[in-house]
Amino acid sequence: MNPSQGSSVPSEHETVGAYALGILDDAEATAFEAHLAGCEWCAQQLDELAGMEPMLAALADLPGSGSTPAIGDSLSARPSPRLVEKLVDDVAEKRAQKRRRSFYMIAAAAALIIAGPLAAVAIGGGSDDGGQVAATPAQATFSTMSDKKSATDASTHVSATVAMAEKDWGTQAVLELKNVKGPLKCSLVLVAKNGQRVTMSSWSVPNWGYGLPDAKTEDAKKPLYIGGAAAFQPNEIDHFEVVTFEGKKLVQVDA
User: Where's the Putative zinc-finger domain (predicted)?
Assistant: First the structure.
């Protein structure tokens, strides 16, 4: 929108269209250029109108016909300030609409790129109607990892499976956690053969818990899948522990 609408602004703002069309005299052009040096809005509008002058010049080269004045003569006439202002607003709005359309198309494409791989990885079950439920990124990674170790603690009854993959920089791991009730704050801790302990990830367990087969809600029936990483290679790892922030061990998984 032209800033002259609804507010008092310097008259130089109304000159940007005429300047873009090249119809200002030398004194007016010099005055506008001095204003342009400190006016971000006029600079933006001038950029929006860039390229119009060559288009008009091309039209001016077309021959006139009969009693109709030559197009070049018509274009050489100085437009009224109101016409120039309307021209600026119309062009700016059309350019803005084009930018908005481009933004929405880019956003939609990005959503498809992000959602596509995740939507393609699905698991059967997980809902009362027997339909498919899209896997989370961690769950999708877990399903592709072949090296898995599992354990269930006899006292807490918490079950865990740790999937591992060797990397140049160490070990990538994804934890599947079941039969844990909240509220809790927990960590996945790697214990190396040399005795070092490294926290690979941490999370909160909500009141309803994770991986509870007799739970009343589907969210509580689903296991937790959470990823982690450490600088140790798989052959340097002794075991993994799931521990609370208070230091209670919920389950240990030997590597």
Answer: 16-43
